[in-house]
Write a structure and sequence with these properties.
Number of domains: 1
Number of helices: 6
Strand content: 15-25%
CATH topology: Cobalt-precorrin-4 Transmethylase, domain 1
Largest sheet: 5 strands, parallel
Oligomer: single chain
CATH architecture: 3-Layer(aba) Sandwich
Radius of gyration: 14 Å
CATH class: Alpha Beta
Order of helices and strands: EHEHEHHHEHE
């Protein structure tokens, strides 16, 4: 049975402690990293560091790289054109890998209190909103966007 809602979070402008606290407050049991590149200049948000901090907090970590935005889409967002990212990302989602990892994300969301993570603070400018919609089409969940203060 699906959890009440699928969570999403962006770590832009946040500390790892703030993100972990927000996840704990929302009763998240699993973080699904949907970044194409799970590396960050921001302390604590590279894959190994993030997984370790989450494990310490009792939250599982899964990186589904195939659900990340391809470089041309990331470049469009950085250039201030998030609307250009959407068709690039939608085309990417037709790939076999993206479809396989989307199926995996749907199963994980059915079995856990899951949260999708990416960088952008505003979910309206992030592909995680699209991924969340695709997951929730199958699970019937609502989406709750967490904001870290």
């Amino acid at each position: 049975m699906a959890s009440a809602s699928l969570l999403t979070i962006g770590y832009e402008g946040c500390t790892i402690g703030g993100v972990v606290a927000a996840l704990k407050a929302a009763d998240a049991t699993l973080l699904i990293d949907v970044r194409a590149v799970a590396a960050s200049r921001k302390p604590g948000f590279s894959k190994r560091q993030l997984a370790a901090a989450l494990e310490e907090a009792g939250i599982r970590y899964v990186h589904l790289q195939g659900l990340g935005t391809p470089k041309p889409g990331r470049d469009a967002v950085r250039a201030g054109h998030p609307e250009r990212m959407v068709p690039i990302f939608n085309e990417h989602m037709t790939s076999d890998r993206a479809q396989a990892e989307l199926a995996m994300a749907r199963e994980l969301a059915r079995d856990s209190r899951a949260c999708l993570l990416c960088f952008e603070r505003d979910p309206a400018h992030c592909h995680r909103r699209i991924v969340a919609g695709l997951v929730c089409e199958a699970t019937g969940q609502d989406v709750t966007d967490l904001m870290v203060e």
